[in-house]
Amino acid sequence: MTAIPRILVHSPRQDEAQRYADLIRLHSPDADIVVSTTAEDAERLIDDAEILMGWHFPPPIFKKAARLRWIHKVSAGVDDVPMDTAISAHVVLTRSNGALIAPRMIEYVVGAIFAIVQHFRQAWRQQLDRRWEAFPVGLAHGSTVGVAGLGDIGEAIAHALQRNGMRVIGWRRTQTASSGVERVYAGLAELEAFATACDFLVIVLPATASTRGIFSGEVFGAMKPSSWLINLGRGSVVDEPALIAALRGGTLAGAVLDVFAEEPLPATSPLWGLDNVLITPHVAGPIVPEDVVGCFLENFIHYRRGEPMRRQVDRARGY
User: Fold this and answer.
1) Is 212 a catalytic residue?
2) Considering 261, 279, 297, which residue would you say is the last residue of a domain?
3) 271, 156, 168: which is closest to 204 by C-alpha?
4) How far apart are CA 255 and CA 274, in angstroms?
5) With CB atoms 3.0 to 4.6 Å apart as the test, which of 41, 175, 196, 221 could cross-link to 36 if both were Cys?
6) Is residue 109 part of a domain?
7) Domain membership of residue 54 as a residue range
8) The model's pTM
9) How far is the C-alpha of 27 from the C-alpha of 257, rounded, in Å?
10) Within-domain flag for 185
11) Smallest Cα–Cα separation from 263: which of 289, 247, 281?
């Protein structure tokens, strides 16, 4: 094994950062760990750190990370890590296994679809008015659900939807086979055809230069007026003004949104006032230390042995 490297654990939440540190020490008692929760602390401590572990990293720290050799993101997305020259090319970037985060996101998606077809929002509104008025409900079974983004999380969601009797199709950047989906659409050329086929379109794409704004007015225009958009990936992949126009104009039946172009979602956003939108505050895929720390611990062993690490991110692609 190599000499004991210093690990900087960073999270804006003190309890979370400390929990990661405690879990690492539980499995590696000799670990040299320092903790930061603010940009100031991170900038002060990064100089001596060989490993950076956590998330919500303050961007200025990377230019001061002279000794850094490995960055591990506890989330599956790495969009808060600069992919340019701010980080030396020899620094390895790894991420958590999305399959460990997927169970909570599966329940979000399945719950949203069932709530939509059963018209729970209408029932809740009627309850507030103390109004007894029967209404027809739908059936999710047999619906076509499209999953955009077929990584660890997307494939897990696809399998769960199939188990609940839905027909599942998928979209990804390149034409690669994927278990859990009936058909894979690939590339921008097939995005509108994919959207056209969906009763529900679920987005779990990462934020990269190539995915920014790809769900545009043209894509929404290709969708059925009865279809719903569910986004729990990244807000930047959706052209938000175009989505608002589609929701207002009846191009889409509605949207369930957990992520947004700007977070927190500004109080001035028109999305707040749309009756056909359900907003949640980026809670669909919470990162629980006990769920994801195992990915870091496994790679920590490989790192100290000088072995290749798992879940390495291709910095050119951004995932």
Assistant:
1) no
2) 279
3) 156
4) 10
5) 41
6) yes
7) 6-96+287-305
8) 0.92
9) 38
10) yes
11) 281
Residues 236 and 294 in one domain: no
**What tokens does 212 get?**
């920014």
Partners of residue 54 on adjacent β-strands: 10, 73
As given in the structure block, the two tokens for residue 201 are 């379109």
- The number of folded domains in the chain is 2
Tens digit of each residue's pLDDT, the chain (319 residues)? 557 999 999 999 999 999 999 999 999 999 999 999 999 999 999 999 999 999 999 999 998 999 999 999 999 888 878 766 668 888 999 999 999 999 999 999 999 999 999 999 999 999 999 999 999 999 999 999 999 999 999 999 999 999 999 999 999 998 888 888 999 999 999 999 999 999 999 999 999 999 999 999 999 999 999 999 999 999 999 999 999 999 999 999 999 999 999 999 999 999 999 999 999 999 999 999 999 999 999 999 999 999 999 999 988 787 7
Per the annotation, the verdict on 282 as an active-site residue is yes
Q: Which of 263, 302, 305, 310 is catalytic?
A: 263
Please, are residues 278 and 257 in contact by the beta-carbon 8 Å criterion?
yes
CATH code, 200: 3.40.50.720
Which position among 25, 44, 183, 282 bears the catalytic label?
A: 282
Q: Is residue 23 situated within a structural domain?
A: yes
Q: Is 263 a known active-site residue?
A: yes
Catalytic residue from among 6, 10, 234, 311 = 234
